[in-house]
Amino acid sequence: MSYLRFLARRAVFAVLSVYAVVTVTFLVVNSVVLLPMKRQVALAEYGGASEEQLEEIRQGYIQARNLDVPLHERYVGWLADVATLDWGYSFAYRRPVIAVLDGRVQATLGYVIPGVALAVVLGVALGLFAALAKDSGFDWAVRVAVYALFGVPVFMFVIYVRYLGETSGAVPALGRHAIATAAVAVSLLAGQVRFARASALEQTGRSFVKMLRAKGADRLRLARHVLRNAAIPIVSLSMTELLAVLVLNIYIIEEVVGIQGLADASLRAIRASDTALVIWTTMVLVVIGIVGNFLQDVLYGSLDPRIRAESEAG
């Protein structure tokens, strides 16, 4: 039951974090919501509008956005809209925001998740075996490759792969999602290898590794025991890198590759000053980040029972 209580606490904390972000977003939106009206009034005044016309513009703007309703009632309505997915109307797409995002979030996660999974599995394996074969030819080859990958910008990799796939007869034309998945994996792989190797090296000098070597354990068995002890910092890096991809690399990848995902909608909203869509694309990224942190807590508790015990004691 202790682990279930641990998960329940983390889930409640995640939900509270979501509503804290929703509250902050509400306050920010309400602090700037009158700026477009002031611009409209200034333009109308510059055009020679009368005071009655200016007041009509002000009242029309306020009533259209329910700004004449008390702030606390608008806040309650905002929370209800979040829960019922009534996220307003996108003027850039001329559709409700939720209809715009439907399918785009899935399209983005459809290449981010497999790309991260590929980078984690391959990066951890390479880093782990490089640490166990420290200063060998394999270790040096992995380290050189990591330094090379750190110098490759994501957009250059995407452009090169697309060009190679479309023009070379030896390489079949690649689909957009395959290219995007590869771009995510490449952007994360170097960091995963480097951190996995460093975490594994911290374990290779410990007594249990020396004992296993003395018993003649093969490299695969050594790797399994070392990975078990180095798993927590590796998981931490994986989640951190996932969030970094969501807030940065997806914008580059979707713009270059041409995937109609979450970042593509966000960029179009920014260019069109589509406030509702900008807010909710950002909110989706924030919520995904909170969910990612929740999963990280779950994995921590699963990998290290001491963390669960400390959480229960707290």
From TrEMBL:
Instruction: Kindly list the places in or outside the cell where this protein is found, as annotated in its UniProt entry.
Output: Cell membrane
Do you know which InterPro entries this protein is assigned to? MetI-like, MetI-like_sf
Record-linked PROSITE patterns: ABC_TM1
Which keywords does this Swiss-Prot/TrEMBL entry list?
A: Cell membrane, Membrane, Transmembrane, Transmembrane helix, Transport
Q: Which Pfam families does the entry link to?
A: BPD_transp_1
| GO CC field | plasma membrane
Q: What are the transmembrane regions?
A: 12-35, 111-132, 144-165, 177-196, 230-253, 277-295
- CDD domains linked to this entry: TM_PBP2
- This protein's major location comes to membrane
- From the Swiss-Prot or TrEMBL record, give the protein name: ABC transporter permease
Biological source species: Halosimplex aquaticum
